[in-house]
Amino acid sequence: MKTSAREPIRYKLGLNQPTSSPTALRLAEMAEAIGRETDGGFILEVHPESRLGPDPQMFADVQSGALEFYLSGATLGGVAPASALPLLPFAFNSSKSVFAALDGGLGAVIRGELARVGLHAFRHSLQNGFHHITTSVRPIQTAADFDRLKIRSPGGAIAADFFQTLRAEAGMVPFSGMYDALKAKKFDGQSDPLGVVQSLKLHEVQTYLSLTSHWWSGFTLLAHAAAWNALPADIKWVVERNAEAYAKRQRADIEQVNAAGEAVLAARGMIVNRADTASIRARLGDFYARWKAKFPPATWRLLEAHADGLG
After folding, report:
1. 190/54 Cα distance (integer angstroms)
2. Cβ of 232: how many Cβ atoms within 10 Å?
3. CA end-to-end distance (rounded Å), the chain
4. Superfamily classification of domain 130-215+262-304
């Protein structure tokens, strides 16, 4: 692709993941490939580790156009309600099922909601994975162990309702401040995939790892719609193709990291147990009914088409 006659276009991509994480590494590779394939016509600068600000600031910046690209986690429910559906507890048993929904009809609904608020969402989401609970005070053996536990949640109404239903106290700090908040005992525990627990070295500030697989979360690569639409069509094509290719590579990377996480974290000194998830699900009947009522039946059917179990 020849773009040498153009002045290079320079955009920034912000994300919260550590520089050495598979996510940040794959996005850096994606940016390099884009620069190479556009002959330097489009330079995408990747800024990991919340260097452009905590997640609420980066999300506000990509909405306003102060930031062109942003890798969003669980911050979209306020503007795109359907984006929260993969976080419904125990809806999915495998990442394959989630991606079948997100690469298909449910993803199209989410992208449509984002487009209506001025955000271009790339079709292929990235992997974060199934969440488990880490704590410093006691392991989660049954649903009763959540009682009065202070949990740092990833944010969003579904997460807050889930923990409140289990009689825990859900709170939020940006991802970049989670380690320090746990170290300072502002929270008793947190919810994240095993790759995150490893990359943030949460074994240093958490004692117990309770395997729950209670919900799945991922990342959505976003662009400020006007900034995206300002790009020439040939550059857009290169970006879209590489966004898909590197998203799929990142999915596989994170799947492997999460699969090895139990053994790695046990070796680092965490006390690991497998929670009785049936006791947790038994508390969620009214929870599922509340959330089903919040979505159009057609959207819920798109979720159920790939979900492994709801309610």
Report:
1. 18
2. 14
3. 51
4. Bacterial extracellular solute-binding protein, family 7 (3.40.190.170)
Query: Which letter, b or e, does each residue of 112-149 get, where b requires 16 or more Cβ atoms within 10 Å of its Cβ?
Result: ebbeeeebbbbbbbbbbbbbbbbbbeebbeebebbeeb
Q: Which of helix, strand or coil describes residue 184? A: coil
The residue with tokens 């009914």 is 289
Residues forming CATH 3.40.190.170 domain(s) in the chain: 9-128+218-261, 130-215+262-304
The CATH number for 9-128+218-261, chosen from 2.30.40.10, 3.40.190.10, 3.90.230.10, 3.40.190.170, is 3.40.190.170
Q: Look up the pTM and report it.
A: 0.92
In the structure encoding, which two tokens stand for residue 43, read together? 């330079």
Taking only the tens of pLDDT, the chain with its 311 residues reads: 544 466 899 999 999 999 999 999 999 999 999 999 999 999 999 999 999 999 999 999 999 999 999 999 877 988 999 999 988 999 999 999 999 999 999 999 999 999 999 999 999 999 999 999 999 999 999 999 999 999 998 888 899 999 999 999 999 898 889 999 999 999 999 999 999 999 999 999 999 999 999 999 999 999 999 999 999 999 999 999 999 999 999 999 999 999 999 999 999 999 999 999 999 999 999 999 999 999 999 999 999 988 986 65
Question: Which amino acid appears at position 130 of this protein?
Answer: F
**Are 235 and 209 contacting, i.e. CB atoms less than 8 angstroms apart?**
no
Q: 213 phi and psi, to 5 degrees?
A: 45, 45
Instruction: Report the Cα 154 to chain-centroid distance in Å.
Output: 9
